[in-house]
Design brief:
Length: 152
């Protein structure tokens, strides 16, 4: 059987940063009770229903996230949904990777960093993102993906 081509298809990468593998048990009062697996399954199902390819990845390692962004360009990803987690406030290299590949992205945070410690207010990503979604819990990912699917 001929391999299904994704060329020209909508292809979305959902990228989760450090510690988001612990969602569900990590500070549930702040980040909610949905596990990363539940969130990813929901997003993949929404992508499939829309006839798009949604791939989800998480890493606790900054360099691996940079690699994933660079690979996304080679793989023809047309949009990224990104929660950089703690790297939001520190990562020049992940910012540079996104600028290098030029793939449009939405920045998602489960919590509202502006309502937390002052140092969480600075993001290395917000000014280069198409948009930002803060504080809506895991729903933020669904909304970002819905935007991506409507756009790409
Ligand atoms: C987060 C907010 C960050 O400040 C924090 O370091 C995280 C999660 C969020 O989704 O609310 O790890 O990105």
């Amino acid at each position: 059987m001929k391999k299904k081509s994704t060329a020209g298809a909508r292809s979305v990468l959902v990228l989760h940063g450090p510690n988001l593998n612990l969602l569900g048990s990590r500070e549930p009062g702040i980040y909610g009770r949905d596990t990363l697996g539940e969130i990813n399954r929901r997003l993949i199902a929404a992508g499939t229903a829309a006839g798009a390819v949604v791939r989800c990845a998480q890493s606790n390692h900054e360099g691996k996230l940079v690699d994933a962004v660079q690979r996304a360009k080679r793989d023809g990803v047309t949009f990224i949904v990104l929660n950089p987690a703690g790297l939001t406030h520190t990562s020049v290299v992940l910012r540079d990777a996104l600028l290098a590949v030029g793939i449009p992205f939405v920045e998602v945070h489960l919590s509202n960093p502006h309502a937390r410690e002052p140092w969480r207010r600075h993001s290395y990503f917000s000014d280069i993102a198409v948009g930002t979604i803060f504080g809506l819990g895991s729903r933020g990912y669904d909304l970002a993906l819905a935007y991506a699917l409507g756009r790409t």
